[in-house]
Amino acid sequence: MSLNAMFSQQPQDLVVVAGQPVTLPCSIPGYHGVVLWIKDGLALGVGRDLSGYPRYTVIGDHSTGEHHLRIQRVELMDDAVFECQAIQAAMRSRPARLTVLVPPEDPVISGGPVVSLRAGDPLNLTCHADNAKPAASIIWIRNGEVLNGAMYSKTLLRDGRRESTVSTLYLSASNIETGQQIICRASNKAVPNGKETSVNIDIQHLPLVNLSVEPQPILEGNLVKFHCSAKANPPVTLYRWAKGGNVIKEVSGDTYEVIVDHSFFTEPVSCEVTNPLGSTNISRNVDVYFGPRMSAEPQSLQVDLGSDAVFNCAWTGNPSLTIVWMKRGSGVVLSNENILTLKAVRQEDAGKYVCRAVVPRVGAGEKEVSLTVNGPPTISSTQTHQALHGEKGEIKCFIRSTPPPDRIAWSWKETVLESGTSGRYTVETVSTEEGVISTLTMSNIVPADFQTIYNCTAWNSFGSDTEIIRLKEQGGSQGSTGSTFSTSTLWWPWF
């Protein structure tokens, strides 16, 4: 045994990845004594007997002083300080630090491989890479670009050597799109190229709905097709149609065909589309062309003389319509508005008025109303009847009166007769739709009857009117043209 023995090879500091083999060299040429390997101050065995450590073997040519320590499949427990000692020579190698690197386990993104979120919500992703030595670094990648701003934390495990890493990535709603892939890559010195996993982003949203109506514009009575196109994630589960708020039960798909009438112009058709997140409702009115339809019917009026008469007549139609107010029998346009106002009405304003609406090239409609004017009676005589001497004769007066006359009287000379018979004279009064006809009948005509002035007078609460009538002898020369005149101011003292 040489007392001058020296180490020709000593173990060096080494860094090795767990699972790999490693050899710590120790050569002492000329030394034939006992060699011990020391791990963290404790002998592994005597000489080449390392039976307590099945992965450890002393290798090399013993005769030349080679006592190398071979470790198969390095584990974390091998992370220690090793020495090679020559006992009889009282020599020890320099201490060699064996550093064992442990790659992280495969990273895991919580909620993967598909992360679903509602449209408008931000994205929070958490990736953890566990049991690494040293602690893993984590980066996030999208479309080949690293995403910055992730929060990072690490936790030391009970063995005091390995660490677990957690990284949380926040992305605002405006910074994410459905279908994007986001990668979490974890690396340390044991795996410089890293390990990675990924998730796909699934942005879920309420149905996005478009409701089309074809064709438009359209004449009522024709077929229209409504198509409700929807994009939804998750997919659409239900279509529901309604018109004017009333559900159309017989339609369940994305298309609704119907023959339209005027109501589709004012009552919208709606399509409600549902998916598991909720419903979206969209509605459309149809540009239906239709002729005038009355929406406010004018009412006949009865007004006092001198008052205003106001008629209201409203129509709907499409395209826009024109309104004309006229008096029946006259070609004069009185108004083009819904409202017709007649100021300070006179009795000649009484009559029929027509409100007419026209939708060009589509249709027309009209409504007739009556204006009745309350005022004093107005009397007109019918044509003067001719009479023969000795025969029966009659004269008539026609009375228009609103309100109806309270009293009608015939007077001549000293006689007043309202009804019934007096001597040769009889009065009969008949009411018609246009007014009252009062007839004075005379039997056995005498010459004096042709010289008499006959007065027909009518009264109501507004006043009176009188008509003076003469009887004409048939074939005679006197009064051959007849004679009638009217006045509302004459007053006969004998009444």
List the helices and strands and how they pair.
Elements: E1 14-17, E2 22-24, E3 35-39, E4 42-43, E5 56-59, E6 68-71, E7 80-86, E8 91-92, E9 96-101, E10 108-109, E11 114-118, E12 123-132, E13 137-142, E14 145-147, E15 151-156, E16 163-171, E17 181-188, E18 191-214, E19 218-219, E20 223-233, E21 238-243, E22 246-247, E23 255-259, H1 263-266, E24 269-275, E25 278-284, E26 288-296, E27 301-304, E28 309-312, E29 314-318, E30 322-327, E31 333-335, E32 339-342, E33 351-359, E34 363-374, E35 378-381, E36 386-387, E37 393-400, E38 407-412, E39 415-417, E40 420-422, E41 425-431, E42 436-442, E43 453-460, E44 463-470, E45 472-473, E46 484-487
Parallel strand pairs: 1-9, 11-18, 19-26, 27-34, 36-45
Antiparallel strand pairs: 2-6, 3-4, 3-7, 5-6, 7-8, 7-9, 10-12, 12-16, 13-14, 13-17, 15-16, 17-18, 18-20, 20-23, 21-22, 21-24, 24-25, 26-29, 28-32, 30-31, 30-33, 33-34, 35-37, 37-42, 38-39, 38-43, 40-41, 41-42, 43-44, 44-46
Summarize the structure.
By secondary structure, the protein is mainly β. A hairpin with a 2-residue loop joins strand 17 and strand 18. The N and C termini lie far apart (178 Å).
Describe the structure.
Belongs to the immunoglobulin superfamily. It holds the Pfam family C2-set_2. Keywords: Cell membrane, Disulfide bond, Glycoprotein, Immunoglobulin domain, Membrane, Repeat, Signal, Transmembrane, Transmembrane helix. The chain is mainly β. The protein has 1 helix and 46 strands. The C terminus is likely disordered.
